[in-house]
Amino acid sequence: MAKLNNTQVFCRIVELGTFAAVAREMNLSAMMISKYMAQLEESLGVALLNRTTRQLSMTEAGRIYYHRSKQLLDDFSELEEYTSQLGLQVKGTLKISAPIDFGGLYMVPAIDAYQRGYPDVKILMTLHNSQVNLSEGSFDLSILVTDTLDLGVVARKIAQTRLCTYASPGYIAEYGEPQTIEELSSHRCLHYMDTPHRDYWVFNVGGEEIKIKANWHFASNNGRALCQAAALGMGITQAPELSVINYLEQGKLVEILPNFRIPSLKIYATYLQRRFLPAKLATFVDFLIKYFAENNRLMKIT
Q1: Quick one: CATH architecture of 92-158+266-299?
Q2: CATH number for region 2-84
Q3: Is the CATH number 3.60.10.10 carried by domain 163-260?
Q4: What is the rounded CA–CA span in Å between residue 292 and residue 273?
Q5: Which has the closest alpha carbon to 8: 80, 62, 76, 70?
Q6: Which of 6, 161, 239, 269 has a Cα at 20 to 30 A from 217?
Q7: pLDDT tens across 218-256, in order?
Q8: What single string gives the DSSP state of each residue in 46-115?
Q9: Structural element, H or E, at residue 247
């Protein structure tokens, strides 16, 4: 057990960067953390860390030992959690990352419904539009609205939405309605930042996906801000239908260029492949799939 404890200390030193940070986290002295590291290196007969007055770095042996130990520690932790939940209530804290618009509009009601059935699961949801690296361990689950997926994660589809192009009736009355994507170059565009397509908008032309660089006059990483700008007549925007449904129902926005719409974007619940999937994660993902299947028509994200 001593070696397991020392290995855990070593992994946290690598992840936090300093002995002092690990000491604070574990409520121990830096001297004790140093003692654990010395015991581990002595038992292995090799140095795992290069120590200077300015920084710590792993030796080649340290890098190999860290990556293998991290996997074993994660497996052990998952096995412990999985076993402890057998025959017991599902409980724990589930850390979720979700896009701002989808998370704000649709995830809160889903979480409320889930916690009615699993009241002992606490959920910490962070909303942002940057794709997270699940292997860093900050999140258990990441919700993605995308047409591309990274390798190395489990991705389960929970819903889908159309990516369309919109303008307000007022904008169309003043500037006219483009009939082809080439005409967009002479229009004022409102661009959504931080997408996989970066500065480009995507369209379907004869079954082929075409990207064009938007002539944008206003850009933001917040879909709600862009929808509001489009409703005010500031320009044309391209957005998932789930983000603009209220504006469409109120007549503040209308879809343009419908014949160039690309296939629907999928909405995925993604998580790392694990040998033992924690019950809180398994039940939540299964619940999301069922919840959105039952509520897609009401929520108009099919």
Answers
A1: 3-Layer(aba) Sandwich (3.40)
A2: 1.10.10.10
A3: no
A4: 23
A5: 70
A6: 161
A7: 998 888 899 999 999 999 999 988 889 889 999 999 999
A8: S--EEE-SS-EEE-HHHHHHHHHHHHHHHHHHHHHHHHHTTTS---EEEEEEE-HHHIIIIIHHHHHHHH
A9: helix 241-249
- Report the amino acid identity of residue 66: Y
Alpha-carbon gap, residue 125 to 136, rounded angstroms: 16
Q: Alpha-carbon distance 11 to 53, whole Å?
A: 20
How distant, in Å, are the alpha carbons of 38, 162, 170, 211 from that of 300? 59, 10, 25, 26
Residue pLDDT, tens place only, 151-202: 678 999 999 888 899 999 999 999 999 999 999 999 999 998 877 777 889 8
Domain positions in the chain are 2-84, 92-158+266-299, 163-260
Asked if 117 and 287 count as a contact pair (C-beta separation under 8 A), the reply is yes
What does the block give as tokens for 91? 């409980």
d(CA 149, CA 50) in angstroms, rounded, equals 37
Question: How far is Cα 197 from Cα 190, in angstroms, rounded to an integer?
Answer: 15
Structure tokens at 131: 């794709």
- Are 257 and 212 in contact by the 8 Å Cβ rule? The answer is no
